[in-house]
């Protein structure tokens, strides 16, 4: 299967990333184990999570997704089969947040313990921390790489200006740089990334790992009207897509999916994978049926005509 490099890190991944936000939320531990086994058995290797997943679930404390992945790694012995990405920075508690040296140094140990591993392949800032200097943050990450606890670092939810500044800080000080950016990007949500980040990432050879790659499930085609919004726990986030442009995108997805005898979800992910500069879209699944559906995208090579049809239908 094709592999792509995460920026200039030397780390190669199959260009489809499993989103671990569902572990401990809509997928219990047993289901999560089944999904992870199937994901690896299908030839994939890239798993993304965060320390804060899934703190929003009543009864959860955060770290739930990491703990499940750690238990899976312990019982399956598959650490060398996966490229493991996690994140730091979003509030775990009032005194556990941000990107200061003191907090990152503690948070990485907590993540390593939950993940039951001695290194993290890609450690990402989950959001910018305006109260900590970029020099302090990047020097701390650089130290973790030198200690062998982290192989590469990336960023998510950074403004374009701050991300560019972070790259410059690393260059000026000889620190390891952010090798990846994790932006929201899909067939519907294109404008922000394409206008603010795309040229910056391509010029600097930054690996781009997209989240909400299926627009909270809208691009699977299962939400066609407001009556469909009750189909899942994420339905509420889909209402904003039910408009003229959204329906135009669905019509194009329907047409291409029929042409390739596949699903709308695999077409939507294949379009992201085919975009210049994209390393891997992130998508999550809560059943083997969903996972098989998403996995088809990695084998799907859309024609220039199909890509153009989708790009035109989703123009903004």
Describe the secondary-structure layout.
Blueprint: E1 4-5, E2 12-13, E3 17-19, H1 29-41, E4 46-48, H2 64-76, E5 83-88, H3 101-115, E6 120-125, H4 134-146, E7 150-156, H5 160-173, E8 178-182, H6 191-196, H7 198-203, E9 207-210, H8 244-260, H9 264-274, E10 278-283, H10 288-299, H11 304-313
Parallel strand pairs: 3-4, 3-10, 4-5, 5-6, 6-7, 7-8, 8-9, 9-10
Antiparallel strand pairs: 1-2
Helix pairs in contact: 2-3, 4-5, 8-9, 8-11, 9-10
Structure described in brief:
The protein has a domain at 4-182: TIM Barrel (Alpha-Beta Barrel).
Global outline: globular
CATH topology value of the domain at 4-182: TIM Barrel
Distance between the termini: 33 Å
- Report the average pLDDT across residues: 96
CATH architecture heading of the domain at 4-182: Alpha-Beta Barrel
The largest pleated sheet is described as:
8 strands, parallel, barrel
**Helicity range:** 40-55%
Order of helices and strands: EEEHEHEHEHEHEHHEHHEHH
Number of strands: 10
What does this structure look like?
The structure is a single chain. The protein is an alpha/beta fold and 316 residues long. It has a domain at 4-182: NADP-dependent oxidoreductase domain (TIM Barrel, Alpha-Beta Barrel). The protein has eleven helices and ten strands. The strands form two sheets. Strands 3-4-5-6-7-8-9-10 form an eight-stranded parallel barrel, surrounded by four helices. A two-stranded antiparallel sheet has the order 1-2. Strand 7, helix 5 and strand 8 (178-182) form a beta-alpha-beta unit. Helix 8 crosses helix 9 (264-274). The chain is globular, with a radius of gyration of 19 Å. It starts with a strand and ends with a helix.
């Amino acid at each position: 299967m094709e592999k792509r490099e995460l920026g200039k890190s030397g780390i190669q991944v199959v260009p489809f990333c499993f989103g671990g936000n569902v572990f401990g939320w809509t997928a219990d531990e047993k289901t999560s184990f089944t999904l992870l086994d199937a994901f690896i058995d299908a030839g994939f290797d890239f798993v993304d999570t965060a320390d804060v997943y899934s703190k929003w679930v009543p009864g959860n404390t955060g770290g739930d997704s990491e703990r499940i992945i750690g238990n899976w790694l312990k019982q399956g012995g598959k650490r060398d089969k996966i490229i493991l990405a996690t994140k730091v920075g979003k509030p775990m508690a009032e005194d556990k947040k941000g990107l200061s040296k003191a907090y990152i140094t503690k948070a990485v140990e907590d993540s390593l313990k939950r993940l039951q591993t001695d290194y993290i392949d890609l450690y990402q800032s989950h959001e910018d921390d305006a109260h900590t200097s970029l020099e302090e943050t990047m020097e701390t990450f650089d130290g973790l790489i030198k200690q062998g606890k982290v192989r590469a670092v990336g960023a998510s939810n950074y403004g374009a200006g701050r991300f560019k500044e972070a790259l410059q800080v690393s260059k000026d000080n000889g620190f390891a740089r952010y090798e990846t950016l994790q932006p929201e990007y899909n067939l519907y949500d294109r404008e922000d990334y394409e206008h603010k980040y795309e040229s910056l990432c391509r010029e600097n050879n930054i690996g781009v790992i997209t989240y909400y790659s299926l627009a909270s499930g809208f691009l699977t085609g299962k939400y066609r009207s407001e009556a469909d919004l009750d189909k899942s726990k994420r339905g509420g986030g889909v209402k904003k897509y039910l408009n003229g442009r959204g329906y135009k995108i669905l019509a194009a997805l329907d047409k291409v999916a029929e042409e390739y005898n596949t699903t709308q979800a695999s077409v939507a992910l294949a379009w992201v994978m085919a975009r210049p500069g994209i390393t891997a879209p992130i998508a999550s699944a809560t059943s083997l049926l969903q996972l098989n559906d998403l996995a088809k995208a990695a084998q799907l090579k859309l024609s220039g005509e199909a890509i153009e049809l989708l790009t035109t239908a989703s123009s903004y």
